[in-house]
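F.,

This is the one I mentioned.
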């Protein structure tokens, strides 16, 4: 290994350490005694609540209703859909005993809920009038991952999982694409993270799905992260669980179904896409605290006057609907507070001392650019709303520019191998569709992240990079989490 390669390896390892350190130091989460399971701290959970609330509103606005299903699933249910059980078998956590006795039938701890939900749909769906069935649930899932990392990949994770049933394939596919669009809009507009969209290869698609649509983003270390997926499940689960409905033509038919999900790995994406050496940088639209106010004083009489001034500003900002807190800790210095809130990624910081009060102004510091400026206290709320939008826009533009700079087209496996090692990112390659050529990507510790949905972008520009035969499609390849 050359000195340059060693340095690049060290940089990647340091980035990994930086990620975990940031998650812990910013008080997003902490490790528990159970391997691969984290305790989400209040600040981290507040981010999840903002994500959850916004996604939930979008789903309800499109007719979906929330429900809840058991975390325990009979093993016989998983076996009913062959691809499904094969896909999840290595990741299953299985309960064999309960109440001090061996169970008559072992229970899987929910890795995903298609099977238990379709057993209930068999009871609930009898006629075309019962369709579409549009159900979502917020909960957790357990997958026995061997290599874990907080938020990105864990034994237990929080998520939403939607499960819908429809009368036709076309309706199911329209549903899967609708949810895909909701995810794209949320991730780009609220999380300020640009995405690449497509469908998964047969190998990479969800176990039991006919089509898996995916939303992928590039992290700042050059690796891809699957941000969310939406699956057209065909009739697989309807047939496996004998879910039938009487259609308008008087015939008994199996429904067409979808499932789709995003998880708390979106929090990990926020860290990896927007963070820097000082810690988090949170987009204002999902930040638990959009503005932190730091009062500054030296003498007690200054403190009383500054606190009164701060109180007036706080009341104005709260009336404007902004998420604001005041750091009144008197056991640490203002400099410590500045660093602490920068670590936590709060978009704007207001510094208010006796001089600011005398000038009827505040000092505003932006977390994304680290710029400071004095702003009049009169009409402060509208000005800060504009600044928050500027932060949101800048974060998205910065991430978009990074993604564009690190998306390339390669024409050979040698070129792909060299680029993946030296400059990880997204790579457009021509692929013939053969499994052995997909194996060649895996040998480079990379995978097909997405096959474009539109014909123009999917059109190959040359032969397959692996075998040289006629290419079937242009695909996006990357190393991933």
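My design for it:
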């Amino acid at each position: 290994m050359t000195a340059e390669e060693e340095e690049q390896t060290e940089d990647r390892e340091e980035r990994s350490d930086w990620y975990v350190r940031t998650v812990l130091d910013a008080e997003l989460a902490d490790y528990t005694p159970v391997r691969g399971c984290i305790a989400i701290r209040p600040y981290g959970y507040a981010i999840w609540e903002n994500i959850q609330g916004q996604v939930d509103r979008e789903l309800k606005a499109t007719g979906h209703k929330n429900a809840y299903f058991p975390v325990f699933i009979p093993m016989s249910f998983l076996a009913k859909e062959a691809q499904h059980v094969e896909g999840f078998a290595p990741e299953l956590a299985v309960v064999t005993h309960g109440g001090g006795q061996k169970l008559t039938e072992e229970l899987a701890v929910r890795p995903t809920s298609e099977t238990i939900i379709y057993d209930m749909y068999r009871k609930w769906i009898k006629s075309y009038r019962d369709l579409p069935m549009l159900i979502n649930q917020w909960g957790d899932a357990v997958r026995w991952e061997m290599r874990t990392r907080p938020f990105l990949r864990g034994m237990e994770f929080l998520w939403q999982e939607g499960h819908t049933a429809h009368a036709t394939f076309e309706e199911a596919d329209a549903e899967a694409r609708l949810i895909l669009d909701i995810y794209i809009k949320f991730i780009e507009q609220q999380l300020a993270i640009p995405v690449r969209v497509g469908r998964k290869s047969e190998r990479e698609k969800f176990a039991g799905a006919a089509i898996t649509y995916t939303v992928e983003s590039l992290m700042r270390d050059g690796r891809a992260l699957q941000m969310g997926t939406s699956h057209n499940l065909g009739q697989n689960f309807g047939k496996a669980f004998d879910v039938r409905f009487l259609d308008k033509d008087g015939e008994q038919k199996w429904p067409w179904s979808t499932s789709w999900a995003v998880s708390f790995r979106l929090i990990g994406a926020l860290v990896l896409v927007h963070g820097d050496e000082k810690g988090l940088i949170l987009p204002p639209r999902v930040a638990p605290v959009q503005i932190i106010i730091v009062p500054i004083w030296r003498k007690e009489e200054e403190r009383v006057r500054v606190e009164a001034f701060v109180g007036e500003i706080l009341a104005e900002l709260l009336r404007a609907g902004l998420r604001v807190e005041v750091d009144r800790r008197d056991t640490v210095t203002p400099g410590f507070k500045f660093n602490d809130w920068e670590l936590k990624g709060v978009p704007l910081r207001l510094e208010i001392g006796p001089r600011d009060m005398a000038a009827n102004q505040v000092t505003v510091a932006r977390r994304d650019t680290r710029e400071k400026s004095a702003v009049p206290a009169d009409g402060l709320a509208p000005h800060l709303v504009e600044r928050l939008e500027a932060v949101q826009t800048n974060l998205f533009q910065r991430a978009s520019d990074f993604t564009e700079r690190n998306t390339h087209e390669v024409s050979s496996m040698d070129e792909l191998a060299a680029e993946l090692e030296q400059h990880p990112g997204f790579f457009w390659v021509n692929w013939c569709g053969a499994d052995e050529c997909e194996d060649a990507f895996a040998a480079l510790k990379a995978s097909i992240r997405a096959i474009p949905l539109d014909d123009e972008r999917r059109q190959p520009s040359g032969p397959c990079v692996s075998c040289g035969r006629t290419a079937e499609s242009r695909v996006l390849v990357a190393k991933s989490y």
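Confidence is low (pLDDT under 50) at residues 1-8.

Talk soon.
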